[in-house]
Amino acid sequence: MSSPSDSQSSPAATPGVQRLEPNRLRGNTVQDPASLFEVPPGESRTLQDIVANLQRVPEPLLHEPMPDPFVLRLTAKSPGGARTAGLWLIATTNDQPFAFRLYRLVNGTWVPHTVDGQHRAIFPEGKLPAWWNGGELDPLAPDLPRDLVLARWAPEIDERNGLLTLHYTARDRAGILRSAYATASAIDGEWKDHGFLDINVRVKDVAPGYPGGPAGENPLVGMIDGHVAAALGPDGRERTFLLTKVDGNGLQWKDPVTQQTHKAPTPILAHEFRQDADGRIELLGAPKVLLSNGPHHDGLIEGQFVVTENGQSYLIYSAGFFGNSEYRTYIAKLDLLAGSVGDERLLIDSQSPALGGQWNGPGHPAFVSQGNGLYAMYLHVWRNGSDYGKDGDQRKAIQRHVAFRDLDGRPCEPFVVEERFSGA
What average pLDDT does this structure show over 192-204? Predict the structure, then answer.
């Protein structure tokens, strides 16, 4: 997530990237067929289905704000078993007394998931981790509003090795954004918080020219937006990586000579790890920089997600200020093992016909497979006429579709279905 000042700051440049050959990356835990409407096990939807029933103006999944939406499908073989099989939704909760409430798709409608009559949250009220921020200010951005100070952002759940692992962002007691994780044996059960990973970098690791400031000569920078992807190595062994964003856009300074405003870059890093049977994560070696923001990204990239289709891996991510129509989403080819990204292009922005002329600022995507080369894409958006500065955080979650095969089933460059077939 970006800070309110992002829309007025100068972006940081980054070197170009090269074209890549396909690799064998696997996507995140969300791999089974899924749909906005419940799909029976073993069945899937087709591009023809979506086109024949095209929803030209998207409706929000829920009426309440749902920033950074994440949807996953659990099966009868998932932790929790048949009782928890189906589609689940979680989102950023910011300064609420709970964190990451659970919603479930029931008969085509998203509803709160209740346990003993109470809306279940991964971290219920009264059970927030003790290391979480209690109002302490961010040393790099002490003027942030309360909802960004008490940050509980970007939850994602990874299903792997018989365990559910929640990756999320929260500030610690020093006001620093941390990438943290928790584990559970059922999505609506008790979650064990493992705290944050020691992966934050220092300013001069990403901005060597930083002259120092109120937070010190070389302070820690926030780390956010944890997302898990896996790749098969040459030996056929699966290797897992946690992708995070360095939240450099939270740090700005003026050149003492030119008075030009600078902002630290926001690289997306890949941290290889392994996870023990008890859920604890062990980092393996130094992280790789996959991509950093360029001049056309308006100061930042974030909200990364990985999808693999047609033998090619893709990194999907957002750029620009999250709080208005500047926010948009890109897609690029990825070689996770090599740590390289190339062939970037815009996937969806505020001018897309897929938003039906009613919404803007589409970003922080999550994908759920619906069939061969077809995905539901979940995004947050702003209703036209609203923005963060005027209305606070009123981002709503919507669903669109992305296809990696055409109507004849042939592999193609990915496209937003509702945009291509909008008739606009």
Answer: 98
